[in-house]
């Protein structure tokens, strides 16, 4: 099971410190500067004006981003069931896509290593990221290759919780520590079974495939909630 976790040499995830953050295409959070006191003049007044414009532009951009449904994301994920890695742990279209993406450059700069290392790396997070990309929802499903950074991205954007919902991105900690830094694996919630288990669709399972699984919620560290239109 530990093979599912891609651990970087270093983790240096940027955090949102001031203002309101919105999730933009590219999987990053853009911080809208907090507005200054309105009773100012001269250079400070000009700064307030620029901040107001920046906030308005950011809000307009957020509103213009397309939304998708949880069901669309799950339908795309389900069509991948059965896809398997090769003997080297690679060879999937999810890994190939990530290697060729701009995000690979960003995560190598953050975590170290080489872009080509992702070609045979554990790919559970790459699978979920690929599904979000195919659904046109990269900006809200996110994209990363490291499960811990992926989870923190949701948490930093106020979209983290403990309730299973269809289409939520589910993060597992096989040790049950409830520590976000101990997350081992990631998938998508298909449904809450109401009996202490959830049905999921996951890539890079213990069988090295995309599979539908039933998991106990005791193994769940938390859920990331994309902003779906349903």
UniProtKB/TrEMBL annotation:
<dbReference type="InterPro" id="IPR007921">
    <property type="entry name" value="CHAP_dom"/>
</dbReference>
<feature type="domain" description="Peptidase C51">
    <location>
        <begin position="99"/>
        <end position="227"/>
    </location>
</feature>
<dbReference type="Pfam" id="PF05257">
    <property type="entry name" value="CHAP"/>
</dbReference>
<protein>
    <recommendedName>
        <fullName>Peptidase C51 domain-containing protein</fullName>
    </recommendedName>
</protein>
<dbReference type="InterPro" id="IPR038765">
    <property type="entry name" value="Papain-like_cys_pep_sf"/>
</dbReference>
<keyword id="KW-0732">Signal</keyword>
<feature type="signal peptide">
    <location>
        <begin position="1"/>
        <end position="36"/>
    </location>
</feature>
